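Workshop exercise sheet. Pairs work together: one partner reads the sequence aloud, the other fills in the structure field after running the prediction. Swap roles for the next sheet.
Pair: D.N. / O.F.
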Amino acid sequence: MRQSLNKSILRLAIPNIISNITVPLLGLVDMILMGHLDSVAYIGAIGLGGTIFSVMYSVFSFMRAGTTGFTAQSLGAGDKSEISYSLYRSLCIAGLATLIVLSLQHPIEWISMKLLNGSEEVLHYTSDYFRVRIWAAPAVLCLYAFNGWYIGMQNTTIPMIIAILINLVNIGASIFCVSSLGMGVRGVALGTVIGQYCGLIAAIIFLLVRYREYLIPIEQKILLQADKLKRFFKVNGDFMIRSILLVLSIAYFNNQSAKLGDNMLAVNMILMQFFYIFSYFTDGFAYAGEALVGKFTGAKDLSQLKHVVRLLLIWGVGLSVPFTLLYWLFPDAFIRLISDQPNVVEMARPYHIYMILIPVITFAAFLWDGVYIGATAARGIRNTMIFASLIVFLPTSLLLIPHFGNHGLWIAFLLFMVARGVSMTFLAKKAIYKPLE
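Structure field:
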């Protein structure tokens, strides 16, 4: 049975890992394109511009998590109608979210420029980036719904193909726009827009070809069923709070980095790529956890649920060891790949230790995220994020940064990740297992 469950985990995780590899690859290409221009301001602009969209989309990213959990549980319970309506409800929310984002784009830009701590040059390029990339919002929001639904259906191959398509198109378009058209940060942003719409078209085609049987006629009475909507919004509301706090924590990290100057901002944006690279590998197993935990929760199979959680954590340990070794042995080589500016490479050296610690400190938080999402244990994931971000990260950063500078910022960030993993571990019995006992 263990071997069979491991095969299921790998079957779901490997496509996610393959697709996720293209995401940090995209980030690396963007950083490389900007890192070889004539100013570190371009690197900072990409980092801060990405932060704006991460914060903005975090308000709606619950659609992917919630859709995965609800769909997987409906699949485990054998409720075909609710499988379809999980997608329908999520797409309706995506449409509403699109209207909100596009209608508020100018206030969002103005507020973002006021809150971000960057030089005048960095903020100028950040604004250029924002004004182009904002038009990818409709595609991004709809893809949350589609990808969440496909993962809930225990199919991670389709999201893999979509992600690879998006990122390959994005990379190609960005290189062309920056290198051939000389568009700078606007070229990177335009590449993102083109890639996202190609992905949305692919998601729709897969639905029509592979899952046509689930395209049942929409009945307003079922779509707007009070108890279903109440649970949908309650769970997704808690997921939304969790997502906002997570991205605000990263935004706060970036903002504090900007206060330390353009060079230190560039250093931290580069070092954070190693956090993202590891997270995308681990998220492959977290997404497998979402699908399998949701399925076993819907089927009320407590034994299999506990078993898959144990196996996921074992895989997490196994992933963290090689990444720790790679980050320890070849730190300068990885950093030079992103930027060839000698001052940036030299300034990064005192902070190599945080690259090395990232895998062993963060894997538990990433994997527990997948477990909580699959079980739709929204209240638990919300409360642990409140604890980690507001009780641990914010106070420790305010205490440490004045005395230790960038070292204090990194220590506070890693404590934030430790707090997430530890608190979710202790709460699991109540939040994950007890509802099925």
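Discussion prompt: Residues 334 and 365 are 25 Å apart (CA to CA). What would you look at next?
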